[in-house]
UniProtKB/TrEMBL annotation:
GN (gene name): mnmC
Keyword Nucleotide-binding annotated: no
Coiled coil: none
Protein name (record): tRNA 5-methylaminomethyl-2-thiouridine biosynthesis bifunctional protein MnmC
SUPFAM superfamilies: FAD/NAD(P)-binding domain (SSF51905)
Domain of life of the source: Bacteria
Protein source organism: Methylobacterium bullatum
Length: 427
């Protein structure tokens, strides 16, 4: 990519990030006639290209791909796009909306200017902007626990973002740490290939793929669950820290049932508490974690049942889930070498890193303080985060609403500043 420095330039709005959130923001700004530029440090849809495994596919139906002005164009609205089709969808969107994306331009610092607006340092020179939209998600740095360093040097360790396929892993069993969406799907990928898998099970909930003859996502959308704003959720802002439900769109979509995997030979363990060389020690919480995940699963089934009854909808009957397997007595430790474990995949998520932004818009954990993406700093916004406003915010289905709201705030601030400048000149 061309890294020739560019001369300093001013933009009414700078959007940082060329994924689906940044592109959607670009669409809305152009619709409002606002000049802007999108800086993308890599390429459009980079994370989808480089941080997803070969068999990855959406867990939500294709019909939820509703980028503003560009609904899903394919012939399988109830299918689940694989990784390469997702990349194609996003790249096609960028072309269709003629987004002004500068690829290969990393934003290295953002600072407020004394008289308003922002200075934006990039790998290709200095820029200024009246307003800035951060569309870089919150998944910046792989979160691998410090005690990973205590594992034997010969045991290969990778983060889930660099996993591609089973053949990539050394011979032997694989320990997958984490049972969120990535951990469960990677464990399934390895398991289906015939590899012995040890899965460390955490507190992530799970969701049925199909209930009463229809995809659960379709039911939940009809019930308004993806439109529920964060302020109306029982957990309020704490919901932003909850793990996503695990299920899969693989092979046309299905449940992920860890108990079923256990019956087929996958070894399940409670939370990983400590590491002492090859010795792994686990919490006695496996049964509780499985039970809690199933309680969410059957809770969703029950909510759908009540919706069907209330609306008088004709739908086939379906019994609620009952456990297929229960754990035996707790085994507090496992010797990785004796168990033949040759590698570890840390499916332990990411941490956010907004340290390049010099503005009082972040809490004690370094996360953005915002209401619907509007931070306390005039002209600084965030978008593309889970539960930015609703459950749909972290999905393709909710980004249009979020970016339209922020575009309206951009327009309002421009008008407010214009009036202020006019009054200043008049005085």
């Amino acid at each position: 990519m061309d890294q020739t420095p560019t001369p300093p330039s001013h933009h009414p709005v700078i959007v940082v990030g060329g994924g689906q959130a940044g592109l959607s923001m670009s669409y809305q700004l152009r619709r409002h006639g606002i000049d802007h530029i999108v800086f993308e440090k890599n390429t459009i849809a980079h994370a989808w290209k480089t941080q997803r495994w070969d068999s990855f596919c959406l867990v939500t139906p294709n019909w939820q791909c509703q980028l503003p002005g560009f609904p899903y164009p394919g012939e399988e609205p109830h299918g689940f796009m694989p990784r390469d089709e997702i990349v194609g969808y996003i790249e096609a969107y960028a072309r269709a909306i003629e987004a002004p994306v500068a690829e290969g331009v990393a934003v290295t610092a953002i600072r407020r200017r004394p008289k308003g607006g922002f200075s934006v340092a990039t790998s290709r020179g200095e820029h200024t902007a009246d307003q800035v939209v951060m569309a870089i998600s919150g998944y910046h740095v792989p979160a691998i626990p410090a005690f990973a360093a205590r594992l034997p040097a010969g045991l290969r360790q990778i983060h889930s973002s660099t996993y591609r396929n089973p053949s990539q892993m050394p011979d032997g069993a694989v320990l997958v740490v984490g049972s969120g969406q990535s951990g469960c799907q990677i464990a399934e990928d390895l398991h289906l290939s015939g590899r012995k898998v040890h899965l460390v099970v955490g507190s992530a909930p799970r969701c049925p793929r199909v209930h009463r003859g229809r995809d659960a996502v379709d039911w939940l959308a009809d019930m308004g669950q993806y439109d529920l704003p964060v302020e109306d959720h029982p957990l309020k802002e704490d919901v932003r820290r909850k793990a996503n439900h695990y299920l899969t769109g693989r092979d046309g979509g299905r449940d992920i049932d860890l108990r079923h995997f256990a019956l087929e030979g996958m070894s399940l363990h409670g939370r990983l508490e400590s590491i002492d060389g090859p010795v792994l020690r686990f919490a006695d919480d496996l049964a509780r974690n499985l039970d809690n995940a199933d309680a969410v699963y059957t809770g969703i089934q029950g909510a759908i049942d009540r919706h069907i009854a209330a609306k008088g909808i004709a739908a086939p009957e379906q019994a609620h889930y009952t456990p297929l397997w229960v754990p035996g007595p707790h085994a507090p430790s496992l010797d990785a070498e004796a168990a033949g474990i040759g590698s570890v995949i840390w499916a332990t998520g990411f941490r956010a890193d907004y340290g390049f932004i010099d503005a009082p818009a972040f809490d004690g954990r370094g996360l953005p303080i915002h209401t619907r993406g509007v931070t306390p700093v005039d002209g600084l916004y965030v978008v593309g985060l889970p539960w930015l406003h609703t459950w749909g915010s972290g999905r393709f289905s909710g980004i249009a609403r979020d970016t339209e709201y922020l575009a309206e705030r951009v327009v309002e601030l421009r008008a407010k500043r214009s009036v202020g400048e006019s009054l200043s000149l008049a005085s």
